[in-house]
Amino acid sequence: MKSKISFEIKEALKVLALPEKAEFFPRFFKTGKGEYAEGDQFIGVTVPDQRKIAKEYFASISLEELSELLTSKIHEHRHCALLMLVSKFEKSKSAEEKSEFVEFYLRQKKYVNNWDLVDNSCYKILGRFCFENNDNRVLKALSEEESLWSKRMAVVATMHHVKKGEFDLMKELVLKNLQHPHDLMQKANGWLLREMGGKNEEELLSFLNEHYQKMPRTSLRYAIEKLDEGLRQDYLKGRI
């Protein structure tokens, strides 16, 4: 039997749906045949509106009810479920409860199957949990999986480590999938390197000097985006 609260959330999202967004999102998120999100369905709810719904309901929804949303074919249902799971994790004071949320996330990870779903949830749950427990085995295991989303999840989750000034794990996972052919993985690798540079430019330059000639162009462009223009051009033209 479907839960009342998950039904209420779906109805609340339906009210906020915009026809023009429902038309635009499938193109933006590449849902066509052969594209990375083939078959994903949208009703047209913006992320700010999803956040309003998540804020209203996260404290009262159970994991079983969250699962009803996270297994939905509708993208906004899944995204809203993840936003609520993040809030539950962040508000929890119980180590046991946080561990339960992480286990739930990993059990349901096949539904975390687009870049926004990954990026808006994994570092706030998996990354923080691994960092605070000084145990990164989960992220290393994800980086070994065949799934594009698992690999992206692994490296993006290290955002929490990078924000805390710890870069070794991120660099290890970037290097593990440095030559991944998909641009979503190349962008993720470059993005995390750029974030490291924002915290410590010398760390970024040291990494680039050793590896930039082997990096896909997309990763390199993302990584050097905030460097001085002259230095950017040196890397792009292979003068270093």
Could you please describe the fold and organization of this structure?
- With 240 residues, this protein is mainly alpha-helical.
- The protein folds into 2 domains: 1-108, ARM repeat  fold, CATH 1.20.1660; 121-240, Leucine-rich Repeat Variant (Alpha Horseshoe).
- The chain has 16 helices and no strands.
- Pfam families: DNA_alkylation (PF08713).
The shape is: globular
Largest sheet: none
Distance between the termini: 63 Å
What is the succession of H and E elements? HHHHHHHHHHHHHHHH
Give a count of the beta strands, DSSP E runs of length 2 or more: 0
- Helix-strand category: mainly alpha
Structure annotation, total helices: 16
The share of residues in helices is 55-70%
Mean pLDDT: 97
CATH architecture annotation of the largest domain: Alpha Horseshoe
Level-1 CATH class name of the largest domain: Mainly Alpha
Poorly predicted runs? none
InterPro entries: ARM-type_fold, DNA_alkylation
Pfam families: DNA_alkylation (PF08713)
Protein name: DNA alkylation repair protein
